[in-house]
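User: Reviewer 2 asked us to show a designed sequence for the structure in our supplementary figure. I'm pasting the structure tokens here. Could you produce the per-position amino acids so we can include them in the response letter?
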């Protein structure tokens, strides 16, 4: 494995933030999707719900209470990699996600775009 460039130092991906109108629904969805534990409520008036990877290897997911969810695709989204894409898509759809059917997929693609129950887009990507 290659070492990280020196200029990166201790910079690392630590938290992915997901905006939500219904924090409980979003926290339940992402907890079940990723196998993370129950959220810790943090911040003034429980503004955030923090989900952590029980194995300690994945980034935390921070559910942030929001006034609105943008209707346009957000400039940042989550990509989930798996060797069993279709199985996970079925499971995640059963948890409350919806498929984005009008996405302009290229002819050759290994990803499917979904929306969480709050409308945030994310991809499930087939990797071998």
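Assistant: Here is a per-position design you can include in the supplement:
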């Amino acid at each position: 494995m290659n070492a990280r460039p020196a200029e990166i130092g201790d910079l690392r991906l630590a938290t992915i933030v997901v905006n939500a109108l219904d924090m409980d629904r979003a926290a339940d969805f992402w907890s079940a999707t990723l196998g993370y534990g129950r959220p810790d409520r943090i911040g003034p008036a429980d503004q955030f719900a923090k989900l952590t990877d029980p194995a300690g290897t994945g980034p935390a997911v921070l559910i942030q209470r929001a006034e609105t969810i943008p209707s346009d695709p957000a400039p940042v989204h989550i990509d989930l990699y798996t060797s069993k894409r279709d199985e996970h898509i079925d499971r995640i759809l059963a948890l409350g996600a919806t498929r984005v059917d009008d996405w302009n997929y290229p002819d050759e693609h290994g990803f499917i775009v979904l929306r969480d129950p709050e409308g945030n887009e994310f991809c499930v990507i087939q990797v071998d």
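For the response letter, you might also mention the following. DSSP finds two helices and eight strands in the chain. The longest helix spans residues 23-34.
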